[in-house]
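Quick entry between incubations.
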Amino acid sequence: MNIETLAVHAGREIDRTTGAVTAPIHLSTTYEREADGSYPRGYSYSRSANPNRQALEKTLASLEEGSAAAAFSSGSAATMSLFQALEPGDHIIAPIDVYHGTARLLRELFAPWGLETSFVDMTVPKEVEDAVRAKTKLIWVETPSNPLLKIADIARLSGIAHAAKALCACDNTWATPVLQRPFASGADLILHATTKYLGGHSDVLGGALIARAEDAFFQRIKKIQAGGGAVPSPFECWLVLRGISTLPYRMRAHSENALRVATFLSQHPAVEATHYPGLKEHPGYETASRQMTRPGGMLSFQVKGGRAKAFDAAAKVKVFIRATSLGGPESLIEHRASVEGPETRTPDNLLRLSIGLEHADDLIGDLAQALH
Ligand SMILES: Cc1ncc(COP(=O)(O)O)c(C=O)c1O
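Done. Structure below.
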């Protein structure tokens, strides 16, 4: 089935007792046990499994064409569970421009715990090959990257991982399964911050890991999920599932709007550079055209005149909202370097845009007056 149909039906089951077409939210934390001690309906305690989480996990696995999924209480909790499934002494290769929260987890929490990470430029596969060691167990890919929209070649990087007998995990938060299928390019695991496009309305935190094969490593992740308990509530699962049902149509609109805004910015005299993989001059254009069906709803640009001019433009917007995050219906603008902290590599004159579902003409008009 096509993704539009899966997004609506994969996790939907008519409620047998009432006929409800939209799933009820099962708030019960505990489930009845039979006299013989068994749980014939498959649920015992809501941290281990509950119907809303199961429906969400089934849908996520289906959209990514994976075997199984594990839902978490945030994207970072999902990321952390994957790192926890490794052993102290293992080595990870991650992008130099990985989401700053992921970099912080690796540097501040997992380095003291014994995981070593090499941060490299993933647009240069040779740098990844050179970083491989005997103890390399994971190559972490994030494409498009944040906030410079760099494009890494997933097939190439998963090939390097497999040659090293390591796993390749891809953070597919920005692209979503509508625009990019990392399993088709050889990835073993996919991460989503469902907080973003999957939830789609800036009203729920969540994360997920999806596995190509339900193997021993994934069983370990499931053990961390159920035992550690960083799980989403039934209501949060319900909200993400509701968001997913419109995901394919939203991604089309985000992408169409973003291309129009990026084209406008790339021709504007007050703009030094525009970073969007849908522009032909973007260094990742060819790879993005191959591995993505559309270039997505995120972009960034650098304002001529430095940090002060960037702040000035962000101060003047009327439709865009100055806020972090992405993937909601409302367009957001953010001065990224000041959010990322002192170790940031982001240029000081860069503004990141999450392009929403407003009319593109209104977004362009807003940026035109802000850059005036
Ligand atoms: C690419 C990417 N991965 C992971 C995360 C972490 O997600 P969460 O904020 O739900 O923990 C984010 C958050 O911005 C993100 O942009």
